[in-house]
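Fold this complex.
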Amino acid sequence: NAGVTQTPKFQVLKTGQSMTLQCAQDMNHEYMSWYRQDPGMGLRLIHYSVGAGITDQGEVPNGYNVSRSTTEDFPLRLLSAAPSQTSVYFCASSQTWKGEKLFFGSGTQLSVL
Amino acid sequence: QKEVEQDPGPLSVPEGAIVSLNCTYSNSAFQYFMWYRQYSRKGPELLMYTYSSGNKEDGRFTAQVDKSSKYISLFIRDSQPSDSATYLCAMSEGEGGKLIFGQGTELSVKP
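Structure:
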């Protein structure tokens, strides 16, 4: 059972570079979301989607882009990486759009130098 | 001020102790209340889920919600070293899919 799969697990970027964090789920979940986790800050919502073609902003959306062309995939794009985006990123999915009972991926540790 | 506040700890207890973890919140529209457990270098996993006010029990774990005080708690009875993890509270209005997390409390249970 794959669940929520995130790639890559680790990434180092230079300031100004762009990249895409991949997220895929095989549970046919409507709801998908991206969080970042920083020490002392807990999990903060970046963007979320309640279905294919529908996305919305969370608490900390600046510097990130998302799209949802299929039910399975929800990539997160960093447009121009900054050191402040150094963090651990988690993708999560849920069966319903209410956002409860999230299933999380194993995370991507990103460092921006 | 964050919508959800949680004491980050760390909290260290001896094996067998009763552990109390708490969160306060400011948004009275929150209806769904959850506790997630996160082991080191892993993604969070759902531990307890409660809708509206009241208590819910699952084995050694009890979740309480007091909407009048905007306060939720997680109790762990007979704590075990395997309970050592970070515990995150989370809340949702149930509309639009925004799930807001607390900062997480790091718990260590010593043998």
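The mean pLDDT of chain A is 92.
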